[in-house]
Amino acid sequence: MQGYIINLNRVKDEDLIVTIISKDSLQTLYRFYGARHGTINIGFKIDYEIEKSSKTTIDRLKDVIHIGFKWMHNYEKLGAWQNYLALFHKHLKDAEDIGTFYYDLIEEASQEWSHKNPKRIAIESYVKILAHEGRLHVEKICFLCAQKIKKDISLIRAYLPTHPYCSHTPSIDADALDELFTNQSSLFLNDKEVDRLWLVLLEGL
Q1: Are 133 and 61 part of one and the same domain?
Q2: Domain contains 130
Q3: Residue 163 phi/psi, 5° resolution?
């Protein structure tokens, strides 16, 4: 089967506890250290097998093959990808049934990562997550003061709308934000706004 590594924990003798998001599940597996084992890291897409163990409660990760992307040697893109994928572990680690939505979203993002600004892809993906989970606040009501936002608008964690003076954060073009929330497109956001929303995203899904 195939999946994306979203978390690694090192244990004794360089063994690893690996969390993988696959097509329809979240799996936590044990990987024994060995000289023949290739290096794996957060963000890697891998093909792998699962070996049941009668000695432990955690299954073993084996026969790992790294499925690379063209952009993997671009350290800026790789760094952004690893930061983005790590967010999914914190967000989904306690979920029992995640369906196929998150895997499909990551798969789509990985295909676009080489030819678009990764920050824009991540922002657009996050809006899709918020919509999927019923957490996308399209109404222009300030999360902090509960008053209508008539002009300047800003976003805080979870892309909640606020007055810039309530949250003490920079404003975002209202029309660009409408395009983002309605069509999951960052086309009209300028680079400064994209950088700002990327930092908000890194606070957590």
Answers
A1: no
A2: yes
A3: -70, 140
